[in-house]
Amino acid sequence: MKVKEVAQILDRFYPPELAAVWDNVGLQVGDPNQEVNRIMIALDPSELVVNEAIKAKVDLLVTHHPLVMSGVNRFTTETSIGRVIANLNANRIALFAAHTNADVAKDGVNDVLARKFELLDLEPLLPLAALSDKDRATEGNLLKIVVFSPAEATEKLIDAMSEAGAGQIGNYDRCAYQVSGVGTFRPQLGADPYLGQVGEITQTQEDRIEMVFRRQHLSGVVEALRRTHPYEEPAYDVIELVDTDQIGLGRKGHLARPLTLKVFAERVAAVVPKTHHGVRVSGDLSAKISTVGVITGAAANFLPQVAQREIDCYVTADAKHHVTLDNLMASGPNLIDLSHWASESPWCDDLANRLNAQFTAENKGIEVIVSTIMGDPWSLRLP
Ligand SMILES: [Zn+2]
């Protein structure tokens, strides 16, 4: 199996169009056509992890955090990022990142953590529509194009628009709906009509074609339509579709029976990886916790939105003093603050299990291992 084929499986698990607009996901380094025998999963593509990957002779490293986000324009070996790229290339290891797409996707990073806390009836904590444009997976929006075409051009139009990315639904491509009707128009002076005469009302048999597509294909699909349609002024509509897949950031769920904040925090501490950061709690330790919200990684800044979601406790990472104090003074949800790494690294085992199960079922002979590097960057905490 080649790197690009493993990338396709990962894109199916964590669709790249679910990534936030600022993010950088997918294949980052390496040769898409290289054969893969061994894969390593880690949270960060740090030099420590890359050295471990070299020793383990892996062909593909899959991480949650991308190597390069933005603002980096030098990749010399004087920089850590430069050394990572050089070492990956020298050892023929490809690097793939599944970041905010893996946060949002079903069975992704947030589901993995929420299940560790035994939360039931999981649903998105913050629907994508509730997020700011910056954090939204705007590329994830589905659009539909409706175009009216003379019958003889219908098949050509469906072909051209599907080549530009329209009509992909699950495992099907070139999906379109068509129905026949009558179109009418009167060419004005200066027109060069495909049918009819200037100044005369013309009626003609036309097909209405409908195809769905992701927003990132918008300009390509419209360009394909205009290039292929025989009319000077083709009639078409682009319609934004409501997301009925119920996708969103974080997860909300309830406990089988209420626990005090203290007991719930002890459950959390027992199931997340141990770090020097530990598990910090802000709130009334005797408060009853029934409903819990979870967003992995640095997501304490979402507290004002999360507070609207009727939860008793919010579990996240990297909470700062001011946002925590403001939340406490505003009687917001009780807060449990984890180490960023501890909140997200359980995903590595989950992804390794999913990939191993798939490769075993398909007899692919690919081994998936998880980095054993302790990725939390803190080395000591004094009380
Ligand atoms: Zn993160």
Task: Please tell me about this protein's structure.
With 383 residues, the chain is an alpha/beta fold. The chain has three domains: 3-103 and 345-370, NIF3 (NGG1p interacting factor 3)-like (Udp-n-acetylmuramoylalanyl-d-glutamate--2,6- Diaminopimelate Ligase, Chain: A, domain 1); 106-126 and 248-338, NIF3 (NGG1p interacting factor 3)-like (Udp-n-acetylmuramoylalanyl-d-glutamate--2,6- Diaminopimelate Ligase, Chain: A, domain 1); 142-240, Alpha-Beta Plaits (2-Layer Sandwich). It has twelve helices and 15 strands. The protein has a six-stranded mixed β-sheet with strand order 5-10-12-13-14-11. Strands 1-4-3-2-15 form a five-stranded mixed β-sheet, with helices on both faces. A four-stranded antiparallel β-sheet has the order 7-8-6-9, covered by helices on one side. The protein is globular and about 85 Å long. Bound molecules: zinc ion. Zinc ion (ZN) is lined by residues 65, 297, 340, 344.
Topology:
Blueprint: H1 3-13, E1 26-29, E2 38-42, H2 47-55, E3 60-63, H3 80-90, E4 94-97, H4 100-104, H5 109-116, E5 120-127, E6 142-150, H6 154-163, E7 177-185, E8 202-214, H7 218-228, E9 236-240, E10 248-260, H8 261-271, E11 280-282, E12 288-298, H9 303-306, E13 313-317, H10 321-329, E14 334-338, H11 340-344, H12 346-361, E15 367-370
Parallel strand pairs: 2-3, 2-15, 3-4, 12-13, 13-14
Antiparallel strand pairs: 1-4, 5-10, 6-8, 6-9, 7-8, 10-12, 11-14
Helix pairs in contact: 2-3, 6-7
Bound molecules: zinc ion (ZN).
Might you state the CATH topology name of the largest domain? Udp-n-acetylmuramoylalanyl-d-glutamate--2,6- Diaminopimelate Ligase, Chain: A, domain 1
Number of helices: 12
Low-confidence stretches: none
SSE-based structural type: alpha/beta
- Unique ligands: zinc ion
CATH superfamily of the largest domain: NIF3 (NGG1p interacting factor 3)-like
Oligomer: single chain
Strand content: 25-35%
N to C succession of SSEs = HEEHEHEHHEEHEEHEEHEEHEHEHHE
The total number of structural domains is 3
**Radius of gyration computed on alpha carbons:** 26 Å
For this structure, what is the CATH class of the largest domain? Alpha Beta
Q: What is the 3D shape?
A: globular
Helicity level, as a percent range?
A: 25-40%
What's the pLDDT, averaged over the residues? 93
Please outline the major beta sheet: 6 strands, mixed
